[in-house]
Design a protein that fits this description.
Shape: elongated
CATH class of the largest domain: Alpha Beta
Distance between the termini: 15 Å
CATH architecture of the largest domain: 4-Layer Sandwich
CATH superfamily of the largest domain: Carbon-nitrogen hydrolase
Number of domains: 2
Structural class: alpha/beta
Strand order of the largest sheet: 13-12-11-10-9-8-15
């Protein structure tokens, strides 16, 4: 299987017996083998887990240190058939000094040993009583288990693009962590082997640190902490295991398990590379650490398709948690309203014009204008809503448009565009029985002309209604609904438009809530073609383009992370498994790519509008693309 940049990691916490290295290795082996058999390519075990973290002054005993080294040698030998990079903690003596170390090994060979940099010496911790900091290492190689191995801070660089940096417990808690330096040096996966005791609220704080470190460093973070079996003379250890990526938790275990535990998760290093490229990360890397970082070459086993257990959210723009989703909707709504209010205030206008169709996008635009006028303390009757029924308008959408306008308290105007469009088609010599793109665009441009001219006449701002999904697909008429004076929905994808409208329906309720729910139940349509014989909408956008939820999925991963077409297919097949077939998804992906490239000319000249999320197609900001680029290379899926 092509790995698409995914690296499977495992954080493992075995049960320990304090001061018994051989028993601890016995407990580690089945957990390591289980993780490796599940496809894990990087496996992390806790700090000092070969001896137990809580040995205290036993660390001054030669017998314990020698037994720990011998146990490591046995562990390495018994894992000779395992190609994963295994990282385990033990005390290591080098030139008479004792270091708290992480030993990394694979395929029966020690790849390197990394000593802990920051030794806690406060409250319950007194590591300086026993150990020396990595800042005081006397050499860059050391003889361990009969081998001369790299010793010190280093990167373990694999041929699949994974670059693994290791830090030990306290290293994560300091202002400038070794992990940050490792990330600037090229590490895209940080491993922290830890022995973090439990106190009230500490888990939440530690979890937040892991999230923030992975976000700040644009990296994956694999965290394994000491657990059951550590001495409870004064402290309790829970065995917390966590895998994070770019600020989000991918997997975490249930703490306080009596027999040890483990978690696995796939980290997307291609995604992390894209995030780094789109930030100041590499400027910092060149300035600080990248050129001086020591690198050790490793080879990780191939990731099998059956072992790639990462799930993909079918709706990446929409939080799955209801409380988070409601908070997100409120935030987006406030951003949209604030953007519109500033523009109206700056121009010095008191009115706004909106073309209201009875569809989702114009409903959201009107709701945003309603909030903006509250912010500006302007009367709602200064919002001029114009319905412009044409050849495809249905009673359902017309009724929704009228009711919605009345609920807001805006001024309602009705202008039938059929006479003007009929005359225009007669003027240009178009046969009205030919229901082609000319037939459709005549109506779209007539509507925009009415809206623009009304805005001029009234001294008002024309509020655009088009959304991000339509911009991506070019699903708008050039110099018609494509154009306005300020586009409030320009960075809101269609899947999110639905949730925003639903959010307002729930928040405000009453007759407004009822009409918004009716709009939500109406098929998405430009209504440019005549309705069917029963008067219902015949022209349904998703019948032509495919589901917006699929196109929004493609857009999110394509624009934000630069995902390749074959990776988009791989992720979509998993995200929509059981919903759409592979053949359908491939057809829609080809359509998305063709339209995304061919319709750039529309995006090159779009009105101003507020950015609300991480994906935006503004030619002045997030997406600058030539209008005559060719999609051929992307269509090889």
């Amino acid at each position: 299987m092509k790995d698409f940049g995914f690296v499977k990691t495992a954080a493992v916490c075995p049960r320990v017996t304090v001061g018994a290295p051989d028993k601890n290795v016995d407990n580690m082996l089945p957990l390591i083998r289980e993780a490796a058999s599940s496809g894990a390519q990087i496996i992390a075990l806790p700090e000092l887990s070969i001896t137990g973290y809580t040995c205290s002054d036993l660390f001054s005993q030669d017998r314990l240190i020698e037994s720990a080294e011998a146990a490591l040698g046995r562990l390495v030998a018994e894992c000779a058939d395992i190609g994963a990079l295994v990282i385990v903690g033990l005390p290591v003596r080098v030139r008479g000094r004792l270091f708290n170390c992480a030993a990394a090994f694979q395929s029966g060979k020690i790849a390197g040993v990394v000593p802990k940099s920051y030794l806690p010496n406060y409250n319950e911790f007194y590591e300086k009583r026993h150990f020396v900091s990595a800042f005081d290492i006397p050499c860059d190689t050391a003889e361990i288990c009969g081998e001369e191995v790299p010793f010190g801070t280093m990167l373990f660089c694999a041929d699949n693009g994974a670059a693994v940096g290791i830090e030990v417990c306290e290293d994560m808690w300091v202002p400038v962590s070794p992990g940050a330096v490792l990330a600037l040096g090229g590490a895209n996966i940080l491993v922290n082997i830890s022995a973090s005791d439990e106190m009230v609220t500490k888990n939440e704080f530690r979890r937040s640190l892991i999230e923030q470190t992975s976000a700040r460093c644009y990296c994956g973070y694999v965290y394994s902490s000491a657990g059951v079996g550590e001495s409870t003379t004064d402290l309790v250890f829970s065995g917390a295991c966590t895998v994070a990526e770019n600020g989000g938790i991918l997997a975490e275990n249930k703490r306080f398990e009596r027999d040890g535990s483990a978690v696995c998760a796939c980290i997307d290093i291609k995604k992390l590379e894209a995030l780094r490229r789109n930030s100041e990360f590499y400027d910092n890397a060149a300035r600080y650490a990248e050129r001086d970082m020591r690198r050790v070459a490793i080879t990780l086993p191939m990731l099998k398709e059956d072992d790639m257990d990462r799930a993909f959210d079918a709706h990446p723009f929409v939080p799955s948690d209801e409380n988070v989703r409601r908070a997100r909707c409120a935030e987006i709504f406030n951003i949209q309203a604030a953007g519109l209010a500033k523009r109206i205030e700056h121009i010095g206008l008191k009115k706004a014009v909106i073309g209201i169709s009875g569809g989702l996008d114009s409903a959201l635009a009107l709701l945003v204008a309603d909030r903006a006028f509250d912010l500006l303390r302007l009367p709602k009757e200064n919002i001029i809503c114009i319905t412009m029924p044409g050849f495809g308008t249905t009673k359902r959408t017309k009724s929704s448009a009228v009711t919605l306008t009345e609920c807001i308290g805006a001024e309602l105007r009705d202008i039938d565009i059929v006479p003007a469009c009929t005359q225009h088609m007669r003027d240009i010599g178009h046969d009205m029985s030919i229901l082609d793109v000319t037939y459709e665009n005549v109506q779209a441009r007539e509507r925009t002309q009415i809206l623009m001219d009304t805005a001029n006449k009234e001294g008002a701002l024309l509020v655009g209604t088009g959304d991000l999904s339509e911009l991506a697909l070019g699903w708008c008429t050039y110099n018609a609904d494509h154009m306005s004076m300020y586009g409030v929905n320009c960075s809101v994808p269609k899947t999110l438009v639905r949730y925003l409208v639903s959010f307002v329906a729930d928040e405000r309720g009453g007759e407004l809530g009822e009409v918004l729910r009716e709009i939500l139940a109406t098929p998405v349509s430009p209504e440019l073609l005549p309705p069917d014989s029963s008067g219902k909408i015949a022209q349904k956008t998703e019948d032509t383009l495919g589901p917006y939820e699929v196109h929004d999925f493609f857009l999110y991963h394509f624009q934000r992370f630069g995902a390749s077409p074959d990776k988009l297919m791989f992720m979509a097949c998993r995200a929509f498994d059981g919903v759409y077939s592979r053949e359908q998804l491939e057809k829609w992906l080809r359509l998305f790519l063709k339209r995304f490239f061919s319709q750039q000319f529309k995006r090159s000249c779009i009105p101003d509008g507020p950015k609300v999320g991480s994906v935006s197609l503004s030619p002045r900001g997030d997406w600058r693309m030539p209008s005559d680029a060719h999609a051929e290379a992307w269509l090889d899926i």
